[in-house]
Amino acid sequence: MTELDYDIAICGAGPAGMALAALLVKRGVPAARIALIDARTLDHASKDPRSLALSWGSRQILEEIGAWPAAATAIEQIHVSRRSQFGRSLIDRKDYDLPALGYVSRYGNLVTALGAVCERAGIVSLRPARVEALDELDDAVALTIAGETPQVLRAAIVVQAEGGLFNEQQTRATHRDYQQTAIIAQVRSTTPPPHRAYERFTEQGPLALLPQDDEYSLVWCVRPDTAIELQALDDADFLQALGAAFGDRVGTFTRATPRLAFPLGLNADPRSTARTVAIGNAAQTLHPVAGQGLNLGLRDVTVLARLLAQGATPAMLSQFTALRQRDRGTTVRLTDTMARIFANDSPAQALLGLSLAAIDVAGPARGLLAELMMYGRR
Questions:
Q1: Any alpha helices (H) in 98-250, and if so which ranges?
Q2: How would you class 313 by CB atoms within 10 Å of its CB: exposed for 0-12, middle for 13-18, buried for 19 or more?
Q3: Which of 91, 209, 219, 346 could form a disulfide with 198 if both were Cys (CB 3.0 to 4.6 A apart)?
Q4: pLDDT band of 205, cuts 50, 70, 90
Q5: Which contiguous run of DSSP H or E holds residue 139?
Q6: CA-CA distance, 301 to 16, in Å (whole number)?
Q7: For the chain, which residues make up each domain, given as ranges?
């Protein structure tokens, strides 16, 4: 059985995992002391067509490590409204002297860029590889990598970043089933305002349109029974239903790609032990309202990279947990509260139109909302 030794093993070579590895090297950690482990090959991951919402702050992180993808559509305005209610809020990048509030990119484009950065840096990549056992010792963590010739990898610190194997006896700190399903597709309309994203709150949940090339990436959150009905419609009837729910702000919807449906819930478990820590989706899987999932994960990355560059020790993981508590807590509470309000016919929904109108009039309130979306809680 082959034995390998590293300072830091990262289980999960998705955007958060690869960004962490690249930023560690940028901070001075030798590339040969870092191992990336993932069940998928980079070629497989690079074909993933899913869309990602990236904040302005996330672009700054990716630019620092040389992984900003050229194929990204800028979001210059975010229009927030409530269906059948007075009031709306418009957040504009000009108000903050920025070239964009955020961007929309494909998962495959982002991991391709990050993969190239990691390869140039000489970071060890074990993929496809599956961690089948993890044993935390006093001075290291031993990971057993499955395969024809099993390998044991010893690392001072193990980071779970969307993958890996942790103690199955651990339970999630917060779990919630929103009784909502997200319908995902690419859609096209007749008169789309350029570079404007929409967050439209309906009686069943938020409906988001994110500009991507000459189309929109659609995330439509509805009750499970409604999702089944929508999935059964042909394209023409689906587009008509979408138009009825969203309105005519982008004209008439004319085209939709095949639709996918995903149940929605909150899993917030920023678990850690003396020598293991979770970041990104492994620490918190959020409702897609406000599009904060990956952005929160990349903020995890920046703090963890700075600390581990000072030493791959349990003391640094303890500092990480303390430093990330505020931003993680604020973002989880924000998305959870919004999701719960719009998962049912709560009376609080009736107040949203007035609230949006007040936010649009009050510059400080709009600025706070914009800052949370662009940078998180700082």
A1: 107-121, 224-232, 235-246
A2: middle
A3: 209
A4: confident
A5: none
A6: 7
A7: 2-52+107-172+267-335, 178-264
- How is residue 105 written in tokens? 């990119």
Report pLDDT digits (tens) over 211-256. Answer: 999 999 999 999 999 999 999 999 999 999 999 999 999 999 999 9
Which residues lie closer than 8 Å to 299 by C-beta, 6 or more apart?
Answer: 57, 61, 324, 327, 376
**CATH fit for domain 2-52+107-172+267-335, picks 2.30.30.520, 3.20.20.70, 3.50.50.60, 3.40.190.150:** 3.50.50.60
Q: How far is 174 from 107, CA to CA, in rounded Å?
A: 27
The structure's pTM equals 0.87
The fold of the 178-264 domain, in CATH, is D-Amino Acid Oxidase; Chain A, domain 2 (3.30.9)
CB under 8 Å to 88, separation ≥6 — which residues? Answer: 79, 80, 81, 82, 353, 356, 357, 360
Taking the C-alpha atoms of residue 371 and residue 249, their distance in angstroms, rounded to an integer, is 25
Rounded alpha-carbon distances, angstroms, from residue 81 to 85, 87, 161: 8, 7, 34
Strands 131-136 and 141-145: antiparallel
